[in-house]
Every structure is written in structure tokens, then in C-alpha cells.
Amino acid sequence: MSELSQINTPSDLVEFNKPVDPCQALLEQIYELGPVQGKDIALQIIDKLNGWHEYMVDQRIEEGENVNACTWAADGAKLEVVYTLLKSIEV
Length: 91
Known about the structure:
The protein is mainly α. The protein is built from four helices and no strands. Helices cover 77% and strands 0% of the residues. The mean pLDDT is 94.
């Protein structure tokens, strides 16, 4: 419900005033684009997350936090696997 003219009952008003979750709103826009674009967006997000993990590994090593760097690297490796698996799915 997006217009005030559609409010006819108290429950309509409650529904109209519900806060919009920005993540849910974004996902709905992605769904409207279609599966090919959705997959591309997901791959880009995973790639950016992996880049962030690589950056954090370097930062932790510079700070002498080698154990913490290993944790970031392990999670980055998982992201690479996710990226590879998702890339292999044909839509």
C-alpha cells in the first residue's frame, strides 16, 4: 500500500505505517530485475565481501595479529568457494 487514498480501515492505516525494511525493499527491486541480474548482483556483493576480507588480512598482518588474519583469510576462502559455486549455476 503506497497511497493515502487506499486507506479505508484502521488495519489499512496500520499497514501503511509499518516501517519499511531497506534490505527487504532492495531485495524486492532485485527480484523484479530477474534471475540473471539477481545472480550478477549477488556475485558482485560476494566479490566485494571477499575484497574486504583480503584487505582485513593485510591489515591484521601489519598489526601483528596473525591469528586474527588467519580467521579473516579462512572466511575469505569460504567466500571464494561461494562465488565459484554461484558462478557455475546457469540461469
